[in-house]
Amino acid sequence: MPMPRFDDIEVGDNLPALEHPPIDRLQLALYAGASGDHNPMHVDIDFVKKAGLDDVFAHGMLGMAWLGRLVTQWVPQTALRNLDARFLDIVPVHAEVTSRGRVARKFTEDGENRIEVEIENVDGEGKASISGRAVIALD
């Protein structure tokens, strides 16, 4: 995919969405191993049930990584100036999540043309689990 150009981007434009396969226990176990985050809330159903929940849920930083991938599938990582997010809700096992973004603002800062993109992960019903923004420099 060619790098988008500042002059070709309009406020309201959507980034190409990133659809993820349903979250499964293997993915959560692999992420725990890769990230070093072995919190039992993400992998141990007996622990989770004792805490009063029905099942394990995804790591918040896994969702944040998906937002990073959403942006860097559209522009090179070197164009990214800022990425931040707020965690809004847990993402249960078996959930189907889509990462999406929309251009919210165009501006110039530090001698660069930049855009601000509102980003979020949503489930099949459109409920957001993470929302945030990315700032991207474009030619």
Automatic annotation (TrEMBL):
Domain of life the protein comes from: Bacteria
Q: What is the lineage of its organism?
A: Bacteria, Pseudomonadati, Pseudomonadota, Gammaproteobacteria, Salinisphaerales
The identity of this protein, by name, is: MaoC/PaaZ C-terminal domain-containing protein
Q: Which PANTHER family match?
A: (3R)-HYDROXYACYL-ACP DEHYDRATASE SUBUNIT HADB, 3-HYDROXYACYL-THIOESTER DEHYDRATASE HTDX-RELATED
- Short name of any one Pfam family annotated for the protein: MaoC_dehydratas
Organism expressing this protein natively: Spectribacter acetivorans
UniProt domain MaoC-like: residue ranges:
22-121
